[in-house]
Specification:
Strand order of the largest sheet: 3-4-5-6-7-8-13-12-11-9
Shape: elongated
Radius of gyration: 22 Å
InterPro entries: F-box_Sdz-33 (IPR012885)
Number of strands: 14
Number of helices: 7
Organism: Caenorhabditis nigoni
Protein name: Sdz-33 F-box domain-containing protein
Strand content: 25-35%
Helix content: 25-40%
Structural class: alpha/beta
């Protein structure tokens, strides 16, 4: 009927569309009209770029969140989805990337402000400039190629007032890093264990026995690092919640 097939089970209707794009648009139009709601978030793979432009054309409100899923089967679009998503700034609060960009991919623009940006699959392309130009409260990068000198530069940037909205920076390195004399060079101070209610118990467990660094305006952060990871927690300006 009208280009698609209908089937019914005892629990729910099942729709089979020969044209997946048409079917997706039809279902979204029906649900949003039924509940009088805008589209809140989008989860897609590389083949779903059409959905971003279509959503932007049908509603004034920006998507709250966006997630790019990994697709190992169809990769005919290359890095185009990354260029489109990052350049279009299609979400207001969070971005989650599970898909990998090519070895030569680079992004030179700015992204944010928002709540969180996460690169869970492969963040090899995220550079020092990207970290400085990502205006998010939480930045998480796996398979990072950020170097120890890059971290020195970023912390100097943060100390002088840069990335002032940042509350969490989490980097998992692609290869081992040498942090020898890192704390002495930055004049880091060992800190007492503290708890901040903004972070999960798992995050807090990773934060124990770190070092303290202070911004020029007095705001403090805790840094915890090893050969394969770097964590930075920025504490509330009103002080620590409780001391362990």
């Amino acid at each position: 009927m009208s280009g698609y097939k209908r089937g019914f089970s005892s629990d729910l209707p099942v729709l089979y569309f020969e044209d997946r794009v048409m079917g997706s648009k039809m279902i979204v139009d029906y649900v949003t009209d039924l509940f009088n709601k805008d589209i809140y978030g989008l989860v897609m793979d590389r083949n779903g770029i059409w959905a971003i432009e279509w959503i932007n054309s049908r509603q004034k409100k920006m998507l709250n969140g966006f997630e790019l899923k990994k697709n190992d089967v169809y990769n005919c679009y290359g890095d185009a989805p990354f260029n489109y998503i990052l350049g279009d700034k299609c979400a207001s609060d969070y971005y989650i990337f599970e898909e990998s960009a090519s070895v030569n991919f680079r992004f030179d623009g700015k992204l944010g402000p928002g709540e969180q940006v996460s690169f869970y699959s492969d963040g090899h392309w995220v550079t020092l400039d990207n970290l400085m130009n990502f205006d998010f409260m939480r930045i998480l990068v796996e398979k990072s190629r950020i170097s120890v000198p890059d971290l020195h530069a970023f912390l100097k940037h943060w100390r002088s007032g840069g990335s002032h909205r940042l509350t969490l920076l989490s980097l998992k390195f692609e290869t081992d890093r040498n942090f020898e004399n890192f704390e002495e060079q930055l004049e880091l101070v060992e800190k007492a264990n503290v708890v901040d209610d903004r972070f999960s118990d798992e995050e807090m467990a990773n934060n124990l026995d770190g070092y303290t660094i202070q911004r020029n305006d007095g705001v403090k952060a805790t840094i915890h690092f090893d050969i394969r990871f770097f964590l930075m927690f920025v504490w509330q300006e009103t002080g620590f919640q409780r001391v362990l």
